[in-house]
Amino acid sequence: MSSSTVITNIATLVTNDPSLGDGSPLGLVRDAAVVIEGDRVVWTGDSSKAPATDNRVDADGRAALPGFVDSHSHLVFAGDRTEEFNARMSGRGYTAGGIRTTVAATRAATDEELEANLTRYLSEALHQGTTTFETKSGYGLTVADEARALRIAAQHTDEVTYLGAHIVSPDHADDPAAYVALVTGEMLDACAPYARWIDVFCEQGAFDGDQARAILTAGRAKGLHPRIHANQLSYGPGVQVAVELDAASADHCTHLTDADVDALAGGRTVATLLPGAEFSTRAAWPNARRLLDAGVTVALSTDCNPGSSFTSSVPFCIALAVRDMGMTPDEAVWSATAGGAAALRRDDVGRLTPGAYADLTLLDAPSHVHLAYRPGVPLVSGVWKRGVRAV
Ligand code: NIG
Ligand code: FE
């Protein structure tokens, strides 16, 4: 039999089950305990009523919440883009063109270098409370380089996304249609075995609405589920294509018309907001309040990548979303846990109720609100991933 652990004396427990505790969407239980058996949560409730177990951990008045679900990152890459960031902070704008710099560095890197880089950013994320993460290809843009990125990513997560359609490969700059044919043909065949998702950067300078639809549809025919980079730098068709194809998530959602918001509210597609990108590109913030008030499901993620958002910190993104995007601390914490799970169409992560994976983050603070209230402070003092203490 697997061993069991009870974590007691949790001042504030975020369960994300509204039928528990205070009845809010976060299902807050005060003076709580969680019982873990093997890799799952088996019991959640009042600390005084916790059943006896093999091991006991005293949270000593700390807050606990589900491990963060970072549903959007680009972690298979080499090099960095310090100069580009410096130039932006001196007034230059962000364009998708910088992606080519990372493509060149990534192609030149060995498998071992890519693996070491990925492991480093995953460790950063874990120490900041992330227990589930999605990551993408998109810095290879050849059949071999995209398949290699996905193979490396798949050794670390089930949530792997094929993004051969990040930009038109520099090798096909004169013939974008030929690149789309490659992405939907030979490259897709080589990449599909390693991936769960297919993504496309639908934006001026990358792929238009018709190309995005064709790419996502081709992926779906190979068993991949669509998600999309949509409406990041400008208004455009991305969100509408996402809802039309029942994509799990439309990511960025910075420039939205009323029709885009209505489409999201009327479908199942989650709007994933990535405030690290607006921070690092000094762009206007996405309006989370508008989406939430329309009834759209919102996720919050890092978009960790060396160009537009070089942060692996979900707590940082929560603080930005609360301060600048109109979210309450409760909403931001929900979006970074249950929201991320929804964006990955998962119900086994992002909540701390019986049956869910025992992915739990302990804060050196009495409440989850401190994630926004104490920005920049390393509050994560313990992390359990699949029932095992990892931090
Ligand atoms: O999500 N928008 C497209 N892709 C990334 C940026 C990648 C880069 O600049 O390297 C993003 O922001
Ligand atoms: Fe991205």
- Would you tell me the structural class of the helices and strands? alpha/beta
Strand content of the residues, in percent?
Answer: 15-25%
Bound compounds = N-(iminomethyl)-L-glutamic acid, fe (iii) ion
Q: Write out the CATH superfamily name of the largest domain.
A: Metal-dependent hydrolases
Poorly predicted spans: none
* Apparent shape: globular
CATH architecture of the largest domain: Alpha-Beta Barrel
Q: What is the CATH C-level name of the largest domain?
A: Alpha Beta
Measured distance between first and last alpha carbons: 24 Å
Helix percent reads: 25-40%
Task: Specify Rg, calculated over alpha carbons.
Answer: 21 Å
In short:
With about 400 residues, the chain is of the alpha/beta class. The protein has 14 helices and 16 strands.
Brief descriptors of the model:
alpha/beta, single chain, Metal_Hydrolase, 391 residues, nine-stranded parallel β-sheet, imidazolonepropionase activity, Urease, subunit C, domain 1, histidine metabolism, seven-stranded mixed β-sheet, zinc, binds N-(iminomethyl)-L-glutamic acid, binds fe (iii) ion, TIM Barrel, 16 strands
